[in-house]
Amino acid sequence: MFRAEEFPSLLVGLEVSDDAAVYKINDEIAVIQTLDFFPPVVDDPYDYGAIAAANAMSDVYAMGGEAVLALNICGFPPDLPSEIVAEILRGGAEKVAEAGGILAGGHTLDDKEPKYGLAVMGFVHPDRVLTKAGARPGDALVLTKPLGVGIITTALKGGVADPGHVEAAVESMKKLNRLAARLMQRVGVNACTDITGFALLGHAQEVAEKSGVRIRFYLEKLPFLEGAKGYAENWLFPGGSCRNQEHYAPHVHFASDIPEDMQMLLYTPETSGGLLIAVPFEKLEELTNLFAADGQEHWTIGEVMEGEGIEVV
Ligand code: CO
Ligand code: CO
Ligand code: CO
Known about the structure:
This protein is of the alpha+beta class. It folds into two domains: about 5-125, CATH 3.30.1330.10; about 130-310, Phosphoribosyl-aminoimidazole Synthetase, Chain A, domain 2 (Alpha-Beta Complex), CATH 3.90.650. It is about 35% helix and about 25% strand. It has helices at about 45-60, 80-100, 150-155, 165-175, 180-185, 200-210, 230-235, 240-250, 260-265, 285-295; strands at about 10, 20-25, 30-40, 65-75, 100-110, 115-125, 140-145, 190-195, 215, 250-255, 275-280, 300-305, 310. The strands form two sheets. A seven-stranded mixed sheet has the order 8-11-7-12-9-13-10, sandwiched between helices. A six-stranded mixed sheet has the order 1-2-3-6-4-5, covered by helices on one side. A hairpin with an 8-residue loop joins strand 1 and strand 2 (about 20-25). Helix 6 runs parallel beside helix 8 (about 240-250). The model has no long low-confidence stretch (mean pLDDT about 95). One cobalt (II) ion binds next to loops.
């Protein structure tokens, strides 16, 4: 077992639920290192590449950094048409370019099911690293993308999704968390994470645990993509919803009037979701004003309290 004292330059990285590893180079620069890749979540190869890239870079933004350098991680079936491979790679490359980063190669192996993603290196000032451990009682919680892409892409796989719902989910997943990260760093916030496979409740519980606080969400303030609630009513949940519920339910308390499908929706994995930001209450208005001025969508969805676990009211 490695001990943190043995690696004084490693600022973040030896705990399971950290978004990325952070390594201090000197007093001005720390390197953020992360990787993520997954099978196709949508039909269009270009969109798949762009989503996988946005998702991989998101952990850099969750730590408050900028993506600098990326490498492709590819597993493709040998018989996958080369035009499709080219479209996936173009989607990833254009997303990295949009982020101001450099895509500098990668590695491909044969795989029955396609997989694509990035290894990403980012920079952050060592004194400005944001983790899940900094939330304080009294902080407001701000979310920067709506919820629901996970259940919409599951409905898509099941062949029952409305094309309009899918289109909005794809746009949301392709969107970079870069602007939100920059603006929150300008204001100065206490903690941040991004909402991905462990869903809103799982990632929030990681914040609650690491920060030693209780988190309260207000159901009526939670933003959902159009269609998500309907698919939940029809119980079109992916397997990940159940796994997340089994794992996190002991820490979550729901108000008695919240129906089971809504509870399950909050346990449903997201892909390339938004940032969940804990901001001191006195800076909330400054942050939301900056977001509004720059066209960054955002919702204030809850608050941090003394205690432990999560409550949804
Ligand atoms: Co993350
Ligand atoms: Co990740
Ligand atoms: Co190689």
